[in-house]
Amino acid sequence: MGPIGHEFVGVVEQAGAEVRDVAEGDLVIAPFTYSDGTCAHCRAGVTSQCVAGGSFGNHGIDGGQGEAVRVPLAESTLVRVPGSRHPDETMRSLVTLSDVMCTGHHAAVSAGVGPGSVVGVVGDGAGGLCAVIAARRLGAARVIAFSRNPARQELAGSFGATDILAERGNAATEAVLERTDGVGVDAALECVGTGQSLGTALAIARPGSIVGVVGAPHGVDMPIMETVVFRNIGLRGGVAPARTYIPELLSDVLEGRIHPGRVFDFEIGLDGVTEAYAAMDERRAIKSLLRVGTA
């Protein structure tokens, strides 16, 4: 196995000659994809599809789960965090801006969440929980979250979910329709990536709405065009352009308006990385946090 890990924050130890916006000693957030900031896709805000970019921990690029990381295109990729000596709670939330909080935000933005929206969030992992935060941050009046796990249900509620449903499949659709007078939700956020979760998101979305899809697809083998065409359901999402979103979310973290770092409920050092993955795989943890060194 080669380098792994695509979500990280750290302190700059050395900067190349063409790097001007960050310097040695700066605390920085690395979005999970690097980008040049100048290509047509970057200029359109889709930095995750940069023609010169890529992702950390893939294709020979250093991964974030190591003692040090070389960051390509650092000038246009890294985001400097102002201030110093941030409390641990803030540091945890800063780590989520590398990926999972931006991914939840991308689901909400893609689905058109706005003031007064009724939103359904399918998925109770870190991405789904951050999508709850994102939906409320964008003004949703009601957020229906799906979870059967008591700890995740509690966290979803603390993040702003107004309804928690344990149902799945057809029962989940019926439960949402019952709670929305047969209408469905204004925006459905799919944060799992399975055929069942996508099917649920499409089924609970009201006609004319958009499903924001950010779950990495696995085992999805289902026809969707009949739903898209005959129920007038839109589908948007994909790989979150974290570099585009970090600046606006960073201010909310630093001002204490959002606390996505609470998704980290398991912590261990780098030597325990295998246990960190096992805890998530066995659903003993929502998301594991690795601490490297003392920085």
CATH domain class name of the largest domain: Alpha Beta
- As for the CATH topology of the largest domain, it is Quinone Oxidoreductase, Chain A, domain 1
User: Helix amount, in percent?
Assistant: 25-40%
Structural class: alpha/beta
Describe the structure.
With 295 residues, the chain is an alpha/beta fold. It has 2 domains: 142 residues, Medium-chain alcohol dehydrogenases, catalytic domain (Quinone Oxidoreductase, Chain A, domain 1, Alpha-Beta Complex); 134 residues, Rossmann fold (3-Layer(aba) Sandwich). The chain contains 11 helices and 13 strands. The strands form 4 sheets. It has a 6-stranded parallel β-sheet with strand order 8-7-6-9-10-11, with helices on both faces. The chain has a 3-stranded antiparallel β-sheet with strand order 1-2-5. A two-stranded antiparallel sheet has the order 3-4. Helix 9 links the parallel strand 10 and strand 11. Helix 4 packs across helix 10, helix 5 packs parallel to helix 6 and helix 7 packs parallel to helix 8. The protein is globular and about 60 Å long. The chain starts with 7 loop residues before the first strand and ends with a strand.
